Amino acid sequence: MDSGISRTTAATILNSLKSGVVPRIGLEYITVGRRSEIQALLQDVSIIEQGGAAFRFIEGKYGSGKTFLMHALRNHVMEKNFVVTDVELSVDKRFVGNKGQGLATYRELIRNMATHASPDNGALQLILDKWIGTLENEVVQFEGLVPGHEVFDVRVSQKIYKITSSMEERVNGFDFGKVLASYYKGYRKGDVELQKRALRWLCGEYRTRTEAKTDLGVNLIITDDNWYDFIKLFADFVVKAGYAGLYVCMDELSTLYEIPSRVGREYNYNKLLSIYNDALQGKASYLGIIVSVTKEAMEDPVRGVFSFEPLRSRLAASSFEQSGAVRMRDMASPVIRLSVLNPGEMYVLLEKLAGIHGILYAYTPRLEHDDYIYFLKQQYGKNMDGGENTARDMIKNYITLLNLMQQNQEVPKEKILYTQNET
Amino acid sequence: MSEGRYNIPKQYKVDKGMPLEALFQKIDNLKCRRIFEAEIESVEWSYHLVDKEGVKDMKELVREQGLSVFEVNLKRKIDPDLLTDVFAGLLQRPILMVYLCDGELSMGTSITVGRSSRTCSTDFYPYDADRLIEVMDYDADTGKTTQQIHKRIYATLFHQKRMIMIEKAFERLNKDSERESFAYEFSLENLDRIRADADFVQSQLKVV
């Protein structure tokens, strides 16, 4: 067991798993059986760091660990100085919709921006302030000027405008740069209202162009149609602000599968296609997008992603992957197909959780090789009897077992283990 | 056994418990007798199929030649072939035996062919409506003699015996492969490989 884990992290891991949710921290300690998937995703990360873009679908059954994998990667890239953001797609948050659902997705993404220094979302203002601070430091360090010097503000402003004007060549980059400049202007003059207005605009909260023109002097607002352009602009901008790139996690793509109207689904799949194409054709830079989807929502030919032929032809598994006596997966494919953890992997996961439980409660768990096997056989037995006992359910049961064993150390473990599994 | 299921002409309900002590005394092999005494809870003569119609007197009925259906409740499962063979010797008449144990059912019959007799029994199988062997068939058995009905039942059981054997063998095959798969999954070699992979992933995910 890794001794580097703190009790706080141990508590978070166990409490989250006991409640059936993926922990926000410490995932590296409990990641089992995902070597090739992680390697493939880390390969993407290194491409993004070098100015590229990546787009991956994580496909798997409910409870197969899609969200877990996304969060593990999110935490990793955040530690690697990326700006990360995530959104759980839903009825109100899609790629496009006639009631502003696309814009709602964008707003959520901006709201959920997080960095290493601000891991719990809401990092946009911090990013902007860090950007300005970095430029100010540069002026101090390399030009020998100190704040308050008459040329200091001029030099910082020059740097700011150099960056914002470099973004003008991008689609919608002119207005984006102009708003960033307004934010700096507010910062420099101590005009909090101006800063707030700039933030509101960047968050996609301006409803009319007139309002934006009056407040910030820009002719454009972020809408359902253009929001993805601004995600690309943000990816570019965060690098200029000193980060490694932008990593976007989108959970529950299955929501699109549930849109009742065919036209509505196709609009959304079309938007998904353009995002996918952008990432893989090199139109985006410093941007990683990872989307989780169930197999049904992906491959259903009537309503799923594969019902949209341009996506199906890009994402369907190659015949080489599907055939052959030994099942081989192409990890460079845009779709990473997750299989559920096999019994051996579950065993190692249980072992790790027992170790973490021991760290949290400062004791040595009494479980041995045969106990793990007994527990797992019972759990798989329940599954074979027709129950849909996913890894999530097994882990919840297991943590309950660990809790009972720790709380009743005078009781023989067999008594608890056997009773536990008979229910 | 419901009356409706066996509702064919010339079939009479007997509902007569058999005197086990007297019956088992006739078993020559001592070990076999001990098994029967220990494991059989009750034997009931349930029905009797005869060619004669309108039999009203029970004494007259049990004297009539025909096919007798017995229901045997077992405490523990005994090989149905052994049961049928021994009961055929004890009862000395054409029989259809129904063995019940732990919610499972087995059937056996003994038929006389010339001077010798042949027995056939199915293995035990879960007793539910979907898998019930239809030994009594109103349509097929109308107008047939008990001997013809008996032959048909023999053929049915012979067929079912094979089906149940295949099904059980298949179940065993699945259990064996499942056992093999678990054995591999929990082997120290496999677990060590998974642990090493997990450690590698942990080192990759951790940013120093």
Q: What features would you describe in this structure?
A:
The complex is a heterodimer of chains A (423) and B (208). Chain A is an alpha/beta fold. Chain A has helices spanning 7-18, 35-49, 66-79, 101-111, 124-143, 152-166, 173-189, 192-202, 209-216, 227-240, 254-257, 262-280, 295-299, 309-315, 319-322, 343-361, 369-384, 391-407, 413-422; strands spanning 53-59, 83-88, 246-251, 287-293, 335-337. Chain A folds into three domains: 34-115 and 243-337, Rossmann fold, CATH 3.40.50; 124-216, no CATH class; 343-422. The longest helix of chain A is centred in the first third of the chain and has 20 residues, at 124-143. Chain B is an alpha+beta fold and 208 residues long. Chain B has one domain. Helix content of chain B is 46%, strand content 25%. Chain B is built from seven helices and seven strands. In chain B, strands 1, 2, 3, 4, 5, 6 and 7 form a seven-stranded mixed β-sheet that branches. Chain B is elongated and about 95 Å long. The termini of chain B are far apart. In chain B, 28% of the residues are buried. Mean pLDDT of chain B is 83; it is low at 1-7.
